[in-house]
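To whoever picks this up:

The nightly regression suite flagged non-specific serine/threonine protein kinase as changed. Nothing in the input moved, so I suspect the structure step. Input below, exactly as stored in the fixture:
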Amino acid sequence: PKRKSLVGTPYWMAPEVISRLPYGPEVDIWSLGIMVIEMIDGEPPFFNEPPLQAMRRIRDMPPPKLKNTHKVSVFVLSDSIVTI
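Regenerated output under the current build:
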C-alpha cells in the first residue's frame, strides 16, 4: 500500500516523502543510497544546512552524487567481503 505520512530524519528522506506524495518501499532504497553516500563522503548531502532548507533542496534538486568518487574502489574493496 502507498503511504503519505511524513516520518523520518530530514537528510535521509526521499523527495516523495518530503513532497507528501504517495510512496512505497522505494523510499527505503533512496535512504539506503544516502547512507552509502554518507559512508563514503563522511556525511549525507546538505548536512551543513538547516533541516528545512535541506528538505527543500532534496525535493527540488536532482539526486545527489558522491563528492569523493576516488574513495569508492577503496571502500568497496575493503568492505566487500562479508561473512554471514
